Structures are given as C-alpha cells and as structure tokens.
Amino acid sequence: MNNNAFEPKIVAFLCNWCAYTGADLAGTSRIQYPPNVRIIRVMCSGSVDPTYVLKPLLDGVDGVLIGGCHPGDCHYQSGNYKARRRIIALKQILKSAGFDDDRVWLRWISASEGGRFAETVTKMTEFLKEKGPNPMRREWAV
Amino acid sequence: MESQPRIGVYVCHCGTNIAAMVDVEQVAEFAATLPHVVVARDYLYMCSDPGQTLIKQDIQEQQLTRVVVAACSPSMHEPTFRGATREGGINPYFMQMINIREQCSWVHTDREKATQKAKALVASAVAKAALLEPLEDREVGVTPGAVVIGGGVAGMIAALDVADAGFPVYLVEKSDHLGGHVADLNRVFPTLESAKELIEPLIKRVQTHPHVTVLLNSQVTGLEGYVGNFELQVTNSKSEGPNPKLSVGSIIIATGYDIFDPRRKPELGYGQYPNVITSLEMEHRLATGDLTVDGRSPQNVAFIQCVGSRDAQVGNLYCSRVCCMYTAKQSRLVRELLPQARVTVFFIDVRVFGKGGEEFYDETRAKRVRYRRGSVSEIYQRDGRVVLVGEDTLLSRPIEFEADLVVLAVGMEPRADTATLSTLFKLPRSADGFFMESHPKLRPVDTVVDGVFLAGCCQGPKDIPDTVAQAKAAASSALIPLILGTVPVESATAVVDADLCAGCGMCVDVCPFGAPALDPLWGVSRVNAVLCKGCGACAAACPSKAIQMQRFTPEQIMAQVDALME
Amino acid sequence: MKTVIPVENGDTLVAVRGFLKRLLEAGVVDAVLVPMETPAGAVTPALVSDSRLLDAANPLAPVMGLNAARVVGPVSIREPRGKIAAVLRPCELRALVELVKLKQASLDDMVTIGVDCLGTYDVPVYEVMRADDGVDVAAYLASAQSGELAPQDGYAFRDACQMCEKPHVSALSSGERLGGVEAVVTLELFGADLSAGIPVTLPDELAEKLGLTDPSPGPSPARRREIIEKVIAARTQVRDARFAEMDRRLEQEGIEGVFAACVRCHNCMTVCPICYCKTCLFKSPTFDHEPLQYMNWAHRKGAYRLPADTMLFHLTRLNHIVLSCVGCGMCTSACPAELPVGRVFRTIGQQVQAVFDYVPGGNVEEPLPLITFREDEWMEVGEE
Prior knowledge:
heterotrimer, A: 142 residues, alpha/beta, Rossmann fold, 4-stranded parallel sheet, 4 helices, globular, C: 384 residues, 2 domains, 39% helix, 11% strand
C-alpha cells in the first residue's frame, strides 16, 4: 500500500471541559489541522471505558486519542488520574497481547490549548501515516 | 419500548461559516439515507427563529422523536436547540448536537475532506440520537455572593453593583490600596475632570459599603467548584494567619493591565535621557504643574504616540485605545501651562472615537497643538536637547526634530500575572495575551468558564467609560445566578440497574463526590442524584455496566464509534 | 502454635478428617466448607455441618473442578451468616483475597484452612485415572516430603499447576512467611512425612479449643523451606519457558491468532473466580446487535467473524480482571476448544501487574490498582 495515499482514521474521546473546549478553541482560532480525527464528546477522560477504545481498534481504526484535563485541572477532581492508570493498563495489555499500543494516545489538553490540540492531531496523523494502516482494518476474524 | 425512532437532521450553513468549507446540501442528502432519519434539511442559520421553527414544525408534522443539529459547538447553542425541541413538543434531551463548524469548517481547507468528515460526524450523532433517553432538567442552589478580583475602576464599579443588589462581595486587591491606575492620573479626558475627584468617592463608597469586604494585599491562589458554588483560596502577602476561603456563586475578573515599558524600545532613549518621559510621568508633572527640564521651561514639547501599541516589533499588534485621547488631553494641558512653547504630536493615525472625543481633538488642534503624521525611529541627545529622527509619512520626507521634552504615549499590555490566572481559572487568552471573552460580539463579558466574567482592561485596552460599562455588564451577568438562586446542572446522572449490580463498590471507590453508596441491606449500589456531577467515572469502573451515565451509555458510545467506522 | 496432627496406620486422610471434625465438635465453627467425595466418587465442595458426614471430606484429592473461592463468596458475603472453616488451596486463597477486595466475599467469621498443594488433575483426567488405574494417594502424598512433585504415570497435572510457583501456604500467626499464601490455619505438607503426621500452624486460642495443647515443631522449618524452594525453582522454570513461548506467540500471531478457535462460549468467564459480574457485559443489550448491523460489518471487512465481538470479549475480560488474575487456570480447564486461556492471562497478567507493582492475592489491605491513584505518578504520560 502506498503510504502517501493512506489517510489514517482517528477516533478521539475528548473530555467536555478541557480537551473538547480546546478543540473548540482551535476552531474559533481557525488553527488548521488534518481532517483525520473524529471527535466523540465525553464528560471526563475518567469515563472512557477501555472497551470503547478496543472496539474501534478491532474494527480497524488507525488511532484512538483520549484527551483530558492536565493533572490537577480535572473538572471532577481526579477523573484524569484514574484515566491515566486505566489507559496505562490498557496499553500494556495491548502491547502484551501483540497489538500496537502506540495507536492509543492519552494527552492532556486544556481548554485554552487550541494550538496544542491541533498540534496533537497533526502529530498523531503524521505518526500513523508513517506507521501505516491498522492491520485489523482487513482482519475479519477478530 | 417505543417504536422505531423518527429522526430529523438539520444541517446549518452558519451563513458561510460552515457552508463555505462543507457541502451542507450533500451532508443533508447523506443524512437522509441514515437509519431512522425521516427528514434532513440544511438551512442558512439553524439558530435563527425560522431555523428553530423548522425543527418545531417537523417535530409536529413529521412526528419526529429525535432531533440532530449539525452546526456549531454545543457550548454555543445546545440550550437553543434543546429549547426548540422542547417547544416542538418532545423531551429536550432528545436533541443531539454535532459540531461541524469548530471541528470541521473552521479547521480544514480541503472542502471534500471536510464534507466527508462532516458526514461521518452526522452519522455518529444520528446513531447516538436513536438511543437517546428522556431526561429531566436539574438545578442546584447558589452560594449568594461574588468575588471581584482587582480593585481598580472596573473592580470597584462591578463590586458596587453586585453589593447594591444586596449580595455580599469580596473585593480582592493585590496591592495595598484601591483605585488601580486611575489613582495615578491627574485629569481625565474629555472632561478634564480631576481623576482624584472621580476615584476617591468611589473608593470611599466601596470601603464603607456594608456588603463589600475589601481584601488588600491579597491574591486568589486556588479555585474549586463551578458556577453557583465556587470556593476560592485567597493568600494575603502581609498576614501569616490562616488564609480565608471564599464561597461565592460568581466571579468577576477585573485585574487590569500593565503599562508598556518603553525600555523595550531602546532607540527611543527612555531611561537614558532625562528629557524623555512616559505619559504617566507626564501625568504626575501636570499634577504638580512643574514641567521644567534641568530647571528650564521647555520650549519645544513633543509627544510620540503608539509606543508599544500597533507595533509588531514588540509583539503588540493592537491599538491601546486611550493614548490618542490622553495625548490630546496632555498636549492641551501643556499648551495651557506653557503658552509660548511649541507642542507637537507625532502620530500614525488619530483615533478619538469615544463620545466627545473628536470634539476634544478638534479643540486641541484649535489651541495650536501641532499634529504631525510621522513615525519616530530614533531619539538621540544633542546639546542638552533631544533630536527625534523619523519619517513624515504624509509628505514622505525624513524628519529631524529638536525637542526639550519628549512624552512617550505608552500603551497597555496584559498584566504579567495573566498567565498564572489563566491557568488557575482555566481561561483562554486571545492572541494579544489579554483574557478572551467567550464571544467577541455577543458575549463580551462572559468567559468559557460559566460563572466567571471579565471587566475592564484585563480583557483588552479600554478607556474609563468603556471599562465602567463592561464592569456594570459583568456585574449584571454575575448577578443572574445570584438572583435566580439556582443554576442548572448536568441533567444526566449515573443510574444503577440493581439487577445487574454485584455490589463490588468500585463505583463508590472512584466517585469523588460520594454519589454512589452501597445499600447495606441489598448490597447493591445506589446513586444519590443530588451529589452526582455526571462525570461517568463510576460507569468506566463498573465491569458489567450495572451503573451507567445517562447520555453516555455504552450502547450510545459504541453506536457512535461504530458509525464513525463506516 | 505449631503442632502435628498425628496420623495413625499411615492414613493421612483420616487424620485430616478428624481435625476437621474436631472443629465442628468443639463448636469452633458452625460448618466446614471442604471438598467432599460424593457417593458417586466425584469431588465437590460442600458446606458440612454434621461432623459425621466429614468422613467423606477429601481436601487432599488431587482434583480441581472449580476454584472454591467462587463458592466461599455466597456463604460469607453478608450477615447474618454462620461461622465457617473453609479448606482451600493456595490459588483459591489468593482468589479469595481478590474477591474480598471486590466485596464478593468476607473473611469475617471465617477460619481459612490453607493446605499446601501438590498439584491437581482436571476432572476428566481424574475420572479416567480413578476408573482405569486407581489414584495412588500414598505416592501423591509422599511427593510432599521429597518435593519431587510429579503426576501419576501416564497422566498430567492441570496446565496451571505445572507452572504454579505459589503452591504453599503460610500461617497468618507464624511470622515465617516463606512468601506463601496466608491462612488462619495451615496444613503444611511440604517437607513432611505425611504417613506419620501432618504439621499444622494455628492460633493458640484455637489450638486450645481443639485440645491441641502439645506443641510440636514438626519437621524443621529449614527442611520445609528447602523443599518449597525446590518446588518453586522447578515450577518457575516451566513458567518462564511458557511465558517466553506465549510472548513469542502473542507477538507473532496476536491474541486473535492464539484465540482463533474460540467459540465465545464464556466458559472461561463462568469458571473464573474473579469474574464476579452478575451478568457479563457481553451478555447484555449493549452487545445485542441488529441483524442489519451484522450485515454492515460483513460489508465493511468483506467477512465478519461470528459469534461477534470475540476478541473484544477477551480483551475486555483482560481489562477487567487481569490485574487480579491469580493464575488458577480454571479457564484453561474449562475451554472446550482447549485454548491456552490461562497461559495468555498469566503471561499478560504478570506484565500488567508489574506495571502497577501489584501482587494479586497478596494483602487484603492493598487497594485494587484501578480504583486508586497518586497525583504524582507517571507525570510524563499525557504531556508529550
């Protein structure tokens, strides 16, 4: 497959208070980023069940981004700390089970970091282009 | 179990904001092919009255049971479309918004890809909408009272308005006195009224108001909670004792500005030559009436405008908005004190837009203050006088101008501590570094943080009337939750299916608010909805999903994810 | 107190039964939860209140049909309840610790009796052995003294037992832990001549109630330690070889390759002592899909494996329980496709557990890793 033509698909779970608002700010500030990301709004990064990350990965999505508030900034006090442990566990399971755990990114993006959001999506898109498509994209037997 | 959902999809053009980069007609056509969609439309402004009417009519005429609006961010218009959905006759929580403006048209340049993305987002919203459940509105009580940060004109006016409405106000001021920059001024334009006479009664009123508590030498160092119930940690630099925690319903930020330090433009010789002074130093001289330089009355006084403003070199692209007027004021006062002297103002443009501004400027020129369109690129000293070198931009001729006294009309900058407060309050800043309002036209005193409002120059340079107007606007906005006594809170809470709950208590362990608790009799989790803030940490911890977050159920999220995979 | 339960005529089992009977007769407990031989010869746990029926108790039978921690939960979870003595193997004790943390069992009013484990057979293997050659109990128990744990000729221990490096127990009161799994009463088989006596450690007041007033050191602790270390060394070697092999397979084939033959029967989940959900998420409406949905998926990849969500099931189960997986291997025993479920869970489990420095089945007071956090950990995560 020609990787230049490959357009990775990224699903992003963004917390309502920081990362999603940061994405809004990227919009109001007209900061351009690749159209490869599809955002799902959740209330808190701590509400992201690993199953929600596994499901698209097995379906063949090329990357999953989980965006939450920076440590200390969680609207719900500690959701991001719990998310951090949960995603670390998930990534280790993926890695141990033979998946590319680096298709899963956890990033802290504040409401005022529109630029950081755009930059994160840009970096992730470039990284996944380099990496190539998720083999699960064509793997029917999962 | 209800029958199959009937979904209406509404794709907004937002004028050309969306339509220019997203083929909205194609998106609507695509939406019409999605499961359960019975009508899909695109419209110029969905948030307009006719736009909302479309939704209401369709709900009634097409028996819609779910509504999807593809438009701007839900933070902008979710309440609007929930309202329209309610007025159409169905539960407002049967409306799902999807953001194709901030997330699509405004951030992409490839129309085809942006349209593709918009379609995917609409598909995911439709998938979720089909699974939406009705909810009731909920609200919580408000702590009556406000904190105003900053004891300048903006802060004091805002504090007084809130206090006059009968609510307690804590006015937190970093320095050891009230009054802000205005306390340093001599006379104010365009009335030439004494600044002292303006500010002192104001300070007196604040100090004696029964509802205002002034906290000097104090800074906010911690913030918890949200609209209706904030808790602020205040640190007093002079006291060792325990720092007070302030509980209030709303917050007004009125932290003001810093004055541009002209040392950052060394070519103008400030700090090097005693006859180059700032406009603020000129205020002090005008207050004492002593304009002498080295014991001699200056014969040639020059004013240079836009020092530190409209200047890419120092990174300040904005106009400071007050310099033209205070220069007109100062030059006129100089002319009155020194009738024999030549008074010249070097300007890029003259912007005297306020009420009475143009008239004042005309009078100033009529009093023989010379306005010369030109930029000064350098100042050097020669025989005790200074020489201004630059270009007359009207005549395209070089300028070399001798003066005994040069006044630099320094502009405003964001305060040095803006970054700290921005982090503390999670407030974004605009490109100029000042705090950002949540909408430049329609919500100029609101911020993205509900219950936190902006007043005065912390949001951008302003003169006193504009500052006061914004302070009063901020006060009235801040009063809304205080007067209502309640604020709406997230309607969606966690709910437990007791039949599924094994009573492991992980939801109890992960909830920071104590909302779920194990029922000692049945050994299953029960949620106290009053305590639930709707974060969903419990649902993520529950392996059987016996506890779920309304509006973010696993079915809904998995359906959204799945729709995005197409 | 350490003492030795005397064995007469070389019949170890009778001595164990006598000890259990005394627990009931002295009124120490209301019932004993212990593996019993049914009239048909099968071995199953039962809650025994009549001491006479303990003549059928056989906690030394080398067969494991389920992890008994599963059945301790329901009889202990809430008051009012009886006072129970539960006779458990080390992997059952460890599972019980996790279940206590998950509030699915309680150690209140419970006397845990831990027994060193010499290895167990799967039920079908045990049945064949009983029918064809008979179970050589004497040889089995003799292996405790030598530490040469080996299955009967022509048979194999359960897969998990072959790689079990935690086969021994440690008395809560003894102080000499040897890293064993803790229980209130411990029957310490390793290093002992079980035809002569069964070393036991138990709290003094309990010993008094049972009339065991004569302390006896039994075999030297050094001897016990030596044998245990020998067993652990042998098992660890097997374990590490299997970890390495499974790591290789997972890397090459992926979990979808290793579990390719899964039929999603949920047996692994059903027998897992940690899988405590009343109804598995994968049996809930979340995973009831519309007929057209299957069609969409078939179109998406050209083919869609059925039953649906098979790998999602395994990966989600890993997410839910792998930090608490004690490696009892019941999942492997229960798998109709004979998939190495337990090996996968242990291989992945030890890697994930290492990340959180968490030992499942260890300390009841230690919180489960995913319900706790520290603010200043993994500070680099999320910032890049």
